[in-house]
Specification:
- With 232 residues, the chain is of the alpha+beta class.
- The protein is built from nine helices and seven strands.
- The protein folds into two domains: 55 residues, Multidrug-efflux Transporter Regulator, Chain: A, Domain 2 (Orthogonal Bundle); 160 residues, Nuclear Transport Factor 2, Chain: A (Roll).
- The strands form two sheets. The protein has a four-stranded antiparallel beta sheet.
């Protein structure tokens, strides 16, 4: 089978050439150059790989996780089980928002003030649940792979806007690299609106705190402890 030129591949799979180039830059695909114009083209193996990428994207997996599955041999079953919990939490949150919206519309029809906080006090979500634990685990696993784009994928819109992957990468290398070789996840626990994950390293510990608002990461703190003191 002759390599398929990028324009034809885009037509077959319904993706843009810009997307294919981006995925190639991310190490997900590999092209060859054909013809006098050195046009990008993809062989049969890469076309099959593209089909797998598109399928995994339908499951809302970030590119870093897809790369770990297709390139690094990551445990796809474990990843998809975690993703199921994550997507279920998002679906549950959307159902709650729709139910709240229905209540608001009833209040509007009854000429009530929808900004009266006493009307919807019971609809606020503050408790940390298993879905939040799952998101925290996904973020920490991507940290340990130094896949900061995946961590950023699970951030809420506000924190994602001012804490890009480059900042996460800088913080991790600045504070965690001096601790030496990673040894184990020491413990994971919840306190109020946060999940704390303690990572044991050769020369100390790193404590990662994720603050959650409505099952989205709204705050992130990284503390390092080279002396072994109790920071939680």
């Amino acid at each position: 089978m002759e390599p398929i030129k990028i324009q034809e591949l885009c037509r077959r799979f319904g993706v843009s050439s810009r997307t294919l180039r981006h995925w190639e830059d991310q190490g997900l695909l590999s092209s060859v150059r054909v013809g006098s114009g050195a046009i990008r083209a993809f062989d049969a193996a890469e076309c099959e790989r593209l089909e797998k990428i598109l399928f995994l994207k339908r499951l809302d997996l970030p590119l870093g996780v897809i790369r770990s599955i297709l390139t690094d041999g990551a445990d796809v079953g474990a990843i998809l089980r975690e993703q199921r919990v994550y997507l279920a939490s998002r679906a549950a949150e959307m159902r709650k928002r729709i139910a709240l919206l229905e209540k608001v519309l009833v209040c509007i029809d009854a000429d009530k003030d929808i900004f009266d906080s006493s009307l919807f006090r019971d609809d606020r979500t503050t408790a940390i649940d298993e879905a939040d634990f799952s998101v925290a685990k996904l973020c920490v696993n991507s940290f340990l792979r130094e896949d900061f784009e995946t961590t950023h994928h699970y951030f809420g819109k506000r924190i994602a806007s001012y804490m890009p992957p480059s900042i996460l990468r800088y913080a991790w290398h600045e504070h965690v690299d001096p601790l030496g070789t990673f040894e184990a996840v020491e413990k994971t626990e919840r306190k109020n609106d946060s999940v704390f994950v303690v990572l044991q390293y050769e020369k100390g510990r790193a404590i990662v705190q994720f603050v959650f608002t409505e099952h989205q990461v709204s705050g992130f703190w990284l503390t390092y402890d080279a002396e072994g003191s109790n920071l939680i």
